[in-house]
Specification:
The chain contains 13 helices and 30 strands. By secondary structure, it is of the alpha+beta class. The chain has an eight-stranded mixed β-sheet. A five-stranded mixed β-sheet has the order 18-22-21-20-19, with no helix packed on it. The chain has a five-stranded mixed β-sheet with strand order 23-24-25-26-30, with no helix packed on it.
Length: 670
């Protein structure tokens, strides 16, 4: 899918114009994600109409209709404020949840030429049902909802009472809780829950490892617990073993932050896992999940090794309220990049260590030491993609990764959709993906040929590389109805001035120097080319003169050749007409004539002999037939006489045939 679709058609779609004032009630720093992208369909939750807006991106790309979108109304709409949308991998179910409830929507069938719901009806009804609606709305608080990593019909819900509930939503009788796991001290009453939150003993988030074999559960005090995911097949009523808290190395007094809020894993099943832990102070910790080498009996088998920490530069005003449970959201994007949404906007963080870990998993023994030395050679880099800081906190209300080109779509509180690319990215991989999407019928070799043509470096690219900035420049998206204070204006002006000097004027002077050197090189090359042109013109004139002389010589040679041919043909004709045979030749001719006559005579005799033989053979056959008919027995003397006669005639015929062959060989007759 073309990148320009998100920046042009989708950004100006009627759907977002209709959502312009729907998010005004979402004030404060509490984060929400009200958009989801699955199977080329973008879903947006409308809190006023309490329904889903959706647009088919493939239909939009093919038809260019920027006005058509569909509304999905739930038969049992949620009675709680919606905070997150989570789609299943198969794309048939959508989980709509908030801190006070969870609702599952069964998406209708997509059919028709455009692949729209119900063949493109403006309003579509969806079957929906809530999970333990009374309990969650009145007593519990939902901290995190995720689909089970090994099932498409099971949902995991983390509650504030340190319990994780497993629901089966594919039953004919409706969704039902099939298991409940206790993952910490269970509070008693509202006071106990408050004490758990204040001490950080309540679980705030969980995620699955890349191999889908374990769940990592994060507590507010920074402790990380581990639990196996094979409890789907287990029918035992016993509690699933919870391992942890996992040891963290090197140890820290504050356990790397006392206000942890989000956890995420990166990597693959064939190499080590990177665990990202975020705190409410916008600090990110990158940890390596490895088997624990401790020999203690109560060892949990795994440990977290903290490699680095990243502090996000978030400018928040004194009026901003960040006392909520989820001040930071983490979203995996590329293989080595993830996005971080917070009250001040959106950051992207790139981890170079991911490439080294992959190479380490594929390396041989003699290459391990060199790769290990590169793991800590380059630190992670954070880029500020979107800035939404103002007098009143207005964080983004949605973030989603637009695959396969790996752009980020950010939905602002004003209903505006922003598109940002995850730089730095691999240019070759991005160009190859764009070419593959634009030319699906071409094979890989043809795509690589096109890619080679596209990768030719021009001087414009060099200038763009010089002018590219090392620091990110976020899109400033402020509330136009409110004015900034003098302090904020001075800070913004100072920061802009410093960036203008360091990142713009200095780079423009470098670009000017590159342009001057390029112009001087082109001028010297032009002078040399003019001299080369004059020399070539002289050579062309000399070649033209030599060519004229050679043409004259060629014409003379052709005339002489024609004369020689005519003279040779005349001589040959004269010799053939005036030739006289010698006596030897005449004698040879007479002998040949004699042999020819003899040969014809012998052929006549041979033919007559063959006819005579055929007649005798025919007579013998007739005699034999008559003899068989008469059935008269001859005497011994008669049979002996006949046999002797036949033998004599056979020997005579054989003698004649041999003589004939000898004569043919002598005369050379075939």
């Amino acid at each position: 899918m073309d990148t320009r679709l998100y920046e042009t058609k989708l950004a100006h779609h009627k759907l977002f114009k209709d959502l312009k004032d729907t998010f005004s009630e979402y004030s404060g720093a509490k984060l929400r994600n009200l958009i989801e992208l699955q199977d080329d369909v973008l879903y947006v939750w409308n809190p006023i109409e309490n329904c889903l807006f959706c647009v088919n991106l493939k239909y939009l790309e093919e038809h260019g209709d920027e006005k058509q979108y569909q509304k999905l109304h739930l038969l049992s709409p949620p009675a709680f404020p919606v905070e997150r949308l989570t789609s299943s991998e198969c794309g048939t179910r959508l989980c709509v949840w908030g801190s006070r409830g969870v609702t599952i929507a069964e998406l209708p069938t997509r059919w028709g030429r455009g692949g729209l719901f119900e063949s493109g009806n403006q309003t579509v009804l969806c079957k929906s049902y809530s999970l333990d609606e009374r309990f969650m709305y009145a007593k519990g608080e939902v901290h995190r909802v995720r689909w089970h990593p090994k099932s498409l019909s099971h949902l995991l819900v983390l509650l504030s009472d340190n319990t994780m509930r497993l629901y089966n939503i594919a039953l004919k009788t409706g969704p039902r809780m099939i298991k409940s796991f206790l993952i910490g001290p269970k509070p008693v009453g509202s006071l106990g829950m408050t004490l758990l939150d204040s001490f950080g003993d309540s679980a705030v988030d969980f995620t699955a490892t890349p191999d889908s074999e374990h769940l990592l559960i994060l507590s507010g005090n920074g402790d990380v617990y581990m639990m196996n995911t094979d409890f789907l097949e287990s029918k035992s009523p016993l509690q699933i073993k919870l391992r942890g808290p996992l040891a963290m190395y090197p140890p820290a007094d504050d356990n790397y932050g006392s206000e942890s809020c989000a956890i995420m894993t990166m990597g693959a099943a064939d190499f080590s896992t990177i665990v990202v832990i975020a705190s409410a102070t916008a600090s990110l910790y990158h940890c390596l999940l490895l088997p624990n080498g401790s020999e203690k009996e109560n060892s949990d088998g795994y440990a977290l090794y903290v490699m680095e920490s990243v502090d996000l530069n978030i400018v928040l005003n004194s009026k901003d309220d960040v006392s909520f449970a989820y001040p930071v959201h983490l979203y995996p994007c590329l293989g080595n990049t993830y996005a971080c949404m917070h009250a001040g906007g959106v950051h992207s963080v790139t981890l170079p260590i991911m490439g080294h870990l992959k190479n380490l998993a594929l390396a041989e023994e003699n290459e391990i030491d060199s790769i290990l030395s590169l793991i800590s050679s380059k630190s992670s880099a954070a880029r500020h993609l979107v800035c939404t800081s103002s007098d009143e906190a207005s964080p983004p209300v949605g973030l989603v990764l637009a695959s396969p080109l790996h752009d980020i779509l950010v939905l602002c509180s004003t209903g505006e959709l922003l598109t940002r690319s995850l730089e730095p990215y691999i240019i070759e991989e991005r160009l190859f993906r764009e070419l593959q999407l634009q030319n699906p019928a071409l094979d890989s070799e043809e795509l690589h040929e096109l890619l080679k043509e596209r990768q030719k470096l021009s001087f414009v690219t060099i200038i763009q590389e010089i002018l590219s900035r090392e620091v990110s420049q976020p899109i400033l998206h402020l509330n136009k109805t409110q004015d900034l204070g003098p302090k904020e204006m001075l800070e913004m002006l100072t920061e802009v001035t410093v960036k203008l000097r360091e990142q713009y004027i200095a780079r423009q002077s470098r670009a000017n120097s590159a342009l001057v050197s390029k112009i001087n090189a082109l001028r010297s090359l032009q002078t040399q080319q003019v001299a080369w042109k004059e020399d070539l013109q002289k050579d062309i004139q000399d070649v033209e003169l030599e060519s004229a002389l050679l043409i004259e010589k060629r014409n003379l040679a052709e005339k002489k050749q024609e004369d020689i041919k005519f003279r040779c043909s005349s001589v040959i004709r004269a010799l053939s007409s005036s030739s006289i045979k010698s006596p030897a030749e005449q004698e040879m001719m007479r002998q040949l004539e004699t042999y020819k006559q003899k040969s014809s005579h012998l052929q006549t005799q041979t033919r007559s002999l063959r006819e005579h033989v055929d007649k005798h053979i025919q007579r013998i056959k007739e005699w034999e037939e008559e003899y068989k008919k008469k059935d008269i027995a001859l005497g011994k003397s008669h049979s002996d006489t006949i046999s002797s006669i036949l033998q004599q005639q056979t020997s005579q015929v054989s003698t004649l045939i041999e003589e004939t062959k000898l004569l043919k060989d002598q005369l050379g007759v075939v």
